[in-house]
Hints:
Elements: E1 2-6, E2 9-11, E3 17-24, E4 33-38, E5 45-50, E6 57-59, E7 67-72, E8 77-82, E9 91-99, E10 102-105, E11 109-113
Parallel strand pairs: 2-11
Antiparallel strand pairs: 1-3, 3-8, 4-5, 4-9, 5-6, 7-8, 9-10, 9-11
Amino acid sequence: VQLVESGGGLVQPGGSLRLSCVASGFTFRTYNMKWYRQAQGKEREWVATISSTGHLRNYADAMKGRITISRDNPKNTVYLQMNSLKPEDTAVYYCNVLFRNMDYWGKGTLVTVSS
């Protein structure tokens, strides 16, 4: 299993970013996918989940209304669209899949929200 995130960077408060995660090594279209984030000095926290078909989506309260998780199964890719970003959204964002009872993570992509 391999997960590769991209799309992070420096953005001003109120700005937007779209993160991507390309997956390989498993049958992507049959697995739920998740995004997590970890701010410096804090524990990793769950951000969003999308079901295998994309029909069900759940969001953490801290970002609800500002983010949209989506997926493109033919491209083995999951996305996280983030809008109205705040300085407190600064973190490394990770893609996650629970495959055969094991959690797999990418290396993450850094999002920095600062003026």
